[in-house]
Automatic annotation (TrEMBL):
GO biological process terms on file: phosphorelay signal transduction system
Residues bearing the modification 4-aspartylphosphate: 66
Protein name: Putative histidine kinase with protein phosphatase region
Magnesium found in the keyword field: no
Limits of the Response regulatory domain: 17-133
Amino acid sequence: MIETVKADAPNLKLRGTALVADDELSNRVILNALLKKLGYQVIQAVDGADAVEKFRQHSIDIVLMDVMMPVMDGYAATEIIKSETADKFIPVLFLTAMTDDKALARCIEVGGDDFLTKPYNHTVLSAKIQSMERIQNLHQDIRMLYNRMQMDEEIAEQVFSGAVLAGNVVLDQISHLHKPASIFSGDIMLTAYSPSHDLHVLLGDFTGHGLAAALGALPTSEVFRSMTAKGFSPPQILQGINSKLHKMLPTGMFLAAQFVKISASLDYITVFNCGMPDLFVIDGNTRRIKNRLESRSMPLGIIPDSNFQEDAQHIRVGLGDRVLLTTDGVSEARDPTGEYFGSERLITAIEQSGEQAFILDNVSSALDRFCSDAPQDDDITMVELPLLPELLPSWRVDQLLAEQTHVDPNSLLDHDSDSVEFHITLRGMQLRKADPVPLLINYIQEMVGIRTHNQVLFTILTELFINALDHGVLGLDSSLKEGPDGFTRYFEERDRMLSQLNEGSVHIGLRIHPQANGGWIVIQIEDSGPGFDFANATSAQGEKPLFSGRGIQLLSSLCESFSYLEPGNRAEAIYAWTNE
């Protein structure tokens, strides 16, 4: 039965449609009259089942539901109606003559929003309906704002994926799991190759989650990729990100991060843990945890300057080993009782992953079983790096040497062309942090623009500078690298000596001779060290290459000419190219 507002009330605005469910005709007649005066169209139902059917057939704005009815009572009918309108607020007012507290509480428990006691009073009914309408309007406003927020987050997520994630490399070889707590995640994973073909991986976790937590993702990815492409070292990249975030993030927001540099030779990794959970290095065959690397640095963006070089952890690795990175959303995930997953369960899942191709798969399954249907409190991200040749580009020193074409600088001579020179000297404390190689590469490109030769030039300049610093200024012996823990000992000693370095110098000079059909670069480097017996070192290298796989032979092969000058603390390399 449907009762409409009559035409004898021309000034009465239609407020909506009311559903009245009561098995007593007299009660329906009274409510019908009262609701018509308030401007409602009325639909009547004789029991709970009839009320559910008519609710499904019509667009209802408010429900007045009797409790005790045949076929289906008001409790059951209300539960069904509320379950079918989860995304829309349809108020239900219970009609009851009961005064028992438990019965009234039951009305609210099943989804009722208020109750109206018999006999009905026009003033009370009007007041309760007005109250429900205010709540209904607020709910509509909130729903509209929520939908708009979701749409904004979905658009922002598309921008995030395109601008931040799309630039990542080697994703087909990396196993990673990402479960955001909302549409937008505060976790970020970045990967990029350096000019020397090392792989840089950053896993970050911004404070909180959602859109606000991801505000720093764009500048972080820009700094990470641009500095990696230019050949900056991990400590310099972290300092660049740290400075950027410190300037732009509001107080209380920061980025916890794990940064892993995987050497192109796949024999060692360098790890920086800045306020993140422990990072694991795992034996690829036994799944035994070889190294557990805890945080040594503060998260990024809190203080303007930080010496990340002192917090580096250098680890010797074997072919097939795995590196597992996780955000705190893994260990802090909770089960339905509120208990945390914790680091011990994580370690157990790692060590019991022997039959699976990826360790991460077993950890993910264990996490799902533990959490069951408990709500997710934080973003969860895990990254597994398999230390295999497929992880790195198809580049090796021997391949570079095979492709290298030597050019006689005299064949390029153009007497009308002028040479340009550039000199830089780093002294004392400057040698702790500064890396001149990216600056030198940039200068060469600005002068002659030979980007196709970047890889070779980067290798030559890096070898010259590292040799001058490590062996000339610091006096380190390459024999320290020998043995299972040699790399770790070497880098620990290098970091220790660098942190105490207050004197010494390295001077680098470039003389560029651009020609019409190519050109050549004369690179001269001099350190403040005592020098060495380069004649004997050259002959020894012919018999046994340096443990690091680089040295005089590599430089001699890449350059048109390479030589040391007395007393052994000066070197000169000439690199030539042709315009093809």
